[in-house]
Structure formats: structure tokens, C-alpha cells
Amino acid sequence: MMHFLRLSSVRVCLALLVSLHLFSSCLAESPSVPSGLSRTEKEEFLAKADIVKSKHVSTGITGTYRVTLTDGRLTHDASVQTIDEAKTTYQTARGTEFNFPDTYSHNMAAYKLDQLMGLNMIPVTVVRKFNGKNASYTWWVDDTPPPANCWQASRLLVCSQNGPAEHRAASLSRFLRRR
Fold first, then answer.
1. Between β-strands 150-153 and 84-92, what pairing exists: parallel, antiparallel or unpaired?
2. Residue 48, SS3 per DSSP
3. Phi-psi region for residue 145, left (φ > 0), alpha (ψ -120 to 50) or beta?
4. Distance, C-alpha 38 to centroid of its chain
5. What are phi and psi for residue 71, nearest 5 degrees?
6. Are 122 and 141 in contact (CB under 8 A)?
């Protein structure tokens, strides 16, 4: 069983890396949030701005809040997650996952990985307290459509480059199923 779990983790990592490679050129063309702020300025704002309003987001299962922050000159929203739990078994309609962690720190990890890879596809994220708990604060992005040469399928953003996107997506899907 442990071999299966390690192999499954390797498959997930491989799928992530292949997916990132497939659409990194597309995402570089994505429109950025029109705030005019650098990543560093956004990080500082998220880390220090005062919360003036918070509202529980009704969708999802992680207890996400949408908060409005202000530092006196700028007001902007953020997605806040405090979830930090682990389950030995997690059952969903799609199947069972073993050693399931669900934590706000995954948001920070994704942001840091995005920075290291130079993809600029994950909104700025910081960790700070919310209602006495550690939480991730992620820069809120409203209705930002993907660039015209991209489409979404199976939660993967696939870009057309050197051939129709449908063919590349089908190839990726077959590749991942064989592994």
C-alpha cells in the first residue's frame, strides 16, 4: 500500500510539472491585476493592512473568507483560509484519498513555487493571523478570463502551441492514465 501511495504522489507531481510546462507560455500573456502594485508591495499590503470587513464565502468546504483590507491609501479584498487539518482517509464521490492534508500553507507553497519558477500565475499570498489562527491571505482577483489562446478542461489550463490544444490535451490525458 505504501508503494502505491508513493507512486501516486510521484504521478501527481509529474502531472503538475507537465501541466505547468504546457501552459506556462500562455500564462505569461495573462493580464495582471490592474493595481499597478509590484508583488512586494502586494505582499506588504496583505501582511499589514487592517481588516475592515469579512464575509464567509458560501462555496467550497475549506471555510474561506473574503476580507476587505485597507492601509489608508489602498483598499482591496483578499481570500483568507485558516483550514489546517489532516485525515488518514478522506472519502468523496470521486474516490478515497489516504493521508489527506488540507491546510492554508498549501496556498503559500503554491505561491512560493510559482515565484521560483517565474510563472506569475498564482496571486500574491502571505501568512498572518485571522481570528487568532494562522491563515493564508491571497490577493483577490475578480473574473480574470484566461488569454484567448487557452481553454480549460479537467481543471487544467491548456494552451494552443504547435498544434491544436485538443490534441495536446488528449495526449496529456492518455499519458497520465498510463502512468
1. unpaired
2. helix
3. beta
4. 19
5. -120, 15
6. no
Q: Give the closest residue to 68 by CA, choosing from 56, 86, 89, 50.
A: 50
Measured CA to CA in angstroms, residue 118 lies from 33, 44, 68, 111, 125 at distances of 17, 20, 28, 10, 15
Q: How do residues 59-83 score in pLDDT, each as one tens digit?
A: 888 899 999 999 999 999 999 999 9
d(CA 82, CA 133) in angstroms, rounded, equals 7
Q: What is the DSSP string of 9-45?
A: HHHHHHHHHHHHHHHHHHHTTSPPPTT---HHHHHHH
Type of residue found at 168: R
Q: pLDDT tens, 112-149?
A: 999 999 988 899 999 999 999 999 999 999 876 655 54
How far lies 120's CA from each of 75, 117, 132, 158, in Å? 22, 8, 30, 16
Residue 71 cell numbers, joined: 492601509
For strands 125-130 and 133-139, give the pairing.
antiparallel
